[in-house]
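Step 1: inspect the first sequence and its tokens.
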Amino acid sequence: MRDTHLDAAIAFYCDPFTPLLMAMIRAEGGETAFLKAIQCSYPKTKDFPEALARACKTLRNRVIEFQTRDLGPLLETQAAASLDPWTGEALPRRLLFTTTFLEFLGARWAPVGAANDPTHLNQNWVPNVIAAYYRRPDADVSPHV
């Protein structure tokens, strides 16, 4: 049996993966477009849950590669622009991936100049993911479909 309080606290303070996957789905243009993006590399992917599983494996592998190459810090903390939902403290710190890692991931997930990107939409992937991941309301998100 899962403890919903534990799950919520981990999600808020310690889980950099879920918001990144959500940002990636948004950057691709939603679940259907995300599935199509996965199918570019894995054509037999049948549905969104399988696409999500493949994305999780890719993300895990990029984390391992990033750390193995010693390319800099993988994680950082960022103050949320809100009150802590449990303690009421201002600006609670959350664990997030660094922009260096997001750029590294983007170079492999949506490489600029890729043969399967004739309209050059991959150039928008990293800025869109960064904007969605850090939830910057002032950032413009360009289409990536």
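Step 2: inspect the second sequence and its tokens, then contrast the two.
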Amino acid sequence: MAETPAVPAAQVPAAAPETADAMPASFEEYLETQPEPIKALYNAHSEALLNTVRATRSERDDMAKKIKDLTKGMAEGSEAKVQLEAMSAQLEKTEKRAAFLEDAMKPELQCRNAKAAWLLAEAGNLFDRKGLPDWQAIRAEAPELFGAPVANANAGNGTGTPPAPQKNMNDYIRRASGRTT
């Protein structure tokens, strides 16, 4: 019988043992422990996304500045000025909501329902002087919106029917002997 030559396995960096002690506190901490090729790969992957975010924010800020500049040159109470002021207010509200939702997605907040938290914060004006959300006040208002998500591991979830009952050896023996319970 002919022996097949051993094929060298791809060199994969050895993973750290997965224990509670070895679990990094954040993704940034985890990334710092990775070898340079992995860091470079991640940076190359995320650079395009970060550039897009920066460009979008720059465009938004430029648009807001143009709207404010246009409203300064218009007569007070004119229809165009009223519409531009409404657009400016809508832009600010949208930016505030986007910043809120971005903040709500942070793992340390453990916000289960960002949309409900936004509606609650907006209705109760739960923001500080700088316009940032007051997460302690929001959490105090509705603690059910916060906490680690808990998965329901029932196999029948989503099918509309509960899972079939489990059979055991006694059931099989009873069926084979002609007795059923």
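Step 3: confirm your contrast with the notes below.
The radius of gyration is 29 Å. Residues 36-72 form the longest helix (37 residues).
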